[in-house]
Design goal:
Elements lengths: L3 H6 L5 H11 L3 H7 L4 H10 L9 E4 L5 H8 L5 E5 L2 H8 L6 E4 L12 E4 L11 H9 L5 E7 H4 L2 H12 L3 E12 L4 E10 L1
Parallel strand pairs: 1-2, 1-4, 2-3, 4-5
Antiparallel strand pairs: 5-7, 6-7
Helix pairs in contact: 4-5
Amino acid sequence: MSTNFLDKAYAARDSDSTRDLYNEWSATYEAEVGAHGYAAPTRCAEALAACVADKTTPLLDFGCGTGLAGLAFRLAGFEVIDGVDISAEMLAQARAKNIYRTLEQIEPDAKLGGDYSLISAVGVIGAGAAPLSTLDTLLHALPRDGKLVFSFNDHALADPANTGRLNEWLDCGAARLLSMDHGPHLPGKNLSSTVYVVEKA
């Protein structure tokens, strides 16, 4: 199996090139990441589930891709899941799973619609994917006491700006860290990630 897409995925690029990459990758994405034991969706879903009492609360799966995270959230007990992504082809794969209430293609710099107190960004923020400003966008979109679950893989963790931006939110009291766990991301590639659950203050 070719790993060309996965090897390319972590290279920095502009948003149009990112969308093109994921459109091209959509048909083989799940097979490729699955072959390497992609663990982030289940880890994020379980981390958020541990912090949420009412799993009928609508959840926005930001950067939902082919729906692997949405499936993990559904298996963790979340009942109402909406997804957004920049890639139409990835969304087509997600739509076939029939687990999302709504799916919408968005522009990279779009403001989030809807009123969500639960948002996920599984493997979304970092080199080759969404820019660090996405963390601010998602936290600003949450209401008070709303929760965001997201992951920084080893590539993202290697850039201190990423954890630094999170700490800006935490240090000033604008958000609270509910959980943080470092563990497998793509074990077959010896890649780990830290999963965070953050609550808006």
